[in-house]
Amino acid sequence: MSIRTSIDLKLDPSCAFNALVGELSTALSELGMQFETGVHGHVMEGSTEVGRVIGWQPGEQIVLEWHGADWQPAEVATVELRFEPIEGGTRVTLEHPEWSSVLGDQGDELAGWFAGEVAAPLLRAMAPRRLGDWITDRRARRPSGAQARAFYRDPLYHRPNFKAILQVLALKRDDYLLEVGCGGGAFLEEALRSGCKAAAIDHSPEMVRLAREVNREAISQNRLEIREEEAHSLPYPDGTFTCAVMTGVFNFLQDPLKALSEIRRVLADGGRFVLFTASRELRGTPAAPEPIASRLYFYEDQELEELARKAGFDDAKWERPDFEQFAREVGIPEEMLELFKGRTGGQLLLARTKY
Ligand SMILES: C[S@@+](CC[C@H](N)C(=O)[O-])C[C@H]1O[C@@H](n2cnc3c(N)ncnc32)[C@H](O)[C@@H]1O
After folding, report:
1. Ligand 1 mean position, distance from CA 161 (Å)
2. Tens of pLDDT along 112-170?
3. Residue 209: its pLDDT value, please?
4. Smallest Cα–Cα separation from 224: which of 199, 189, 241, 195?
5. Which of 158, 201, 249 to mutate for ligand 1's pocket (most ligand atoms within 8 Å of CB)?
6. Measuring CA to CA, which residue among 297, 23, 281, 293 is closest to residue 136?
7. Which pLDDT score is estimated for 14?
8. Beta carbons within 10 angstroms of residue 216's beta carbon
9. Which runs of E-coded beta strand occur in 183-293?
10. Is the peptide bond prior to 291 cis by the omega test (within 30 degrees of 0)?
11. pLDDT tens-digit readout, 324-334
12. Rounded to an integer, what distance in angstroms lies between the CA atom of residue 267 and that of residue 336?
């Protein structure tokens, strides 16, 4: 008895193959499995080889010799991932043709396995809570995938914010800057033009890779280091940096006080911190659309100040800059300028530690 699942994609078979192989490898790694791709590839679960590539035809199929049950070493099956041209695209099918050889052919056991391990997770993935979380992570909270990489390589709509931050931060050559949640590294690229040194963290592996690529020259000159880390536990000793920045990240944080306290801890005496975060007024606009908007934490201006003081900053004040001029300077299209007008485009928090 077989098990089969498929999706139709508007991609030609060779693009569908490349996209699926890349995404599958990333997704398996998040589940603690490794997919080494290519003709001599493997699928590993910890140190156990569960799949071995025995057929690798890009754009057509991948065939795996599959060991689904290491307690029954003789049970070896052939799992196929097929890419078949259909009108307007490609049908991708994953099939295990002999599934009953492991579970037996009792209908109720197979039904139980299918309901619990395939159908229920699939239905949950297609329901609002999980789907909204997936979209939020994929696009902004932990960006991944080709579209996110293209967006964060050159995040035009974030550049007005970068300009506002750089204006208040007034970087100098002898600054050592920390960016928390650096995304694809576009802000770092602009900040490093001041001649300063910098370090950055982000918890998205794909964003860390992209930010390193975008800033490869600064990294090779030892002016920049980027690490995959969480905002609430920064991997630096106390008093390391002269300044710090966080832009487009704060709305996602479940424990904002912890993150601010960490930034305070790693700042030296006289350190300055600039935070840009989306204001409540942006909820539901293209800057904070659903389903992302309802997963964001918004703050009143005064609340930001209070949080910074609680985190140990000696001085904190908020601003509502007019981003329109910055938006014009970076080339935001005329019809989108409205989003940046009228001091509702976002909140800036400026905080300091004492000398
Ligand atoms: C909307 S993007 C903004 C990226 C960049 N700062 C910019 O303005 O283009 C939010 C970024 O924050 C990162 N992020 C969110 N929560 C984080 C956390 N708890 N620790 C580290 N990075 C985080 C995400 O991975 C993502 O790259």
Report:
1. 14
2. 999 999 999 999 999 999 999 999 999 999 999 999 999 999 999 999 999 999 999 99
3. 97
4. 199
5. 249
6. 293
7. 97
8. 12
9. 197-202, 224-228, 241-247, 267-277
10. yes
11. 999 999 999 99
12. 37
